[in-house]
Amino acid sequence: MLTTVPMILAAAPLIGYFIGHWIDKKAGTDPWFMLVFLGLGLIAGARETILIIKKAQDDDRDQSD
User: Where do the domains of the chain lie?
Assistant: First the structure.
């Protein structure tokens, strides 16, 4: 489970970047949507990482009891 953390930290901002870049090309608002979605991707990746780490800690506690 913890091996997915690096992939999530890399993939979430990349997906946000590409979605924002695509919207910017369609709307002609370069670079605003790219920056917004990149930031959202960073936040989403960090949030998901925190949730995975908490779940791993809970699983570890359950196994040690």
Answer: 8-56
Distant-in-sequence, close-in-space partners of 12: CB < 8 Å, separation ≥ 6? 41, 42, 44, 45, 48
Residues 6+ apart with CB under 8 A from 32: 24
Sign, CA dihedral 15-21-26-28, equals: positive
Task: Please name the residue that has the structure tokens 């489970």.
Answer: 1
pTM higher than the cut 0.85: yes
pLDDT at residue 18 is higher than 90: yes
Please, are residues 43 and 51 in contact by the beta-carbon 8 Å criterion? no
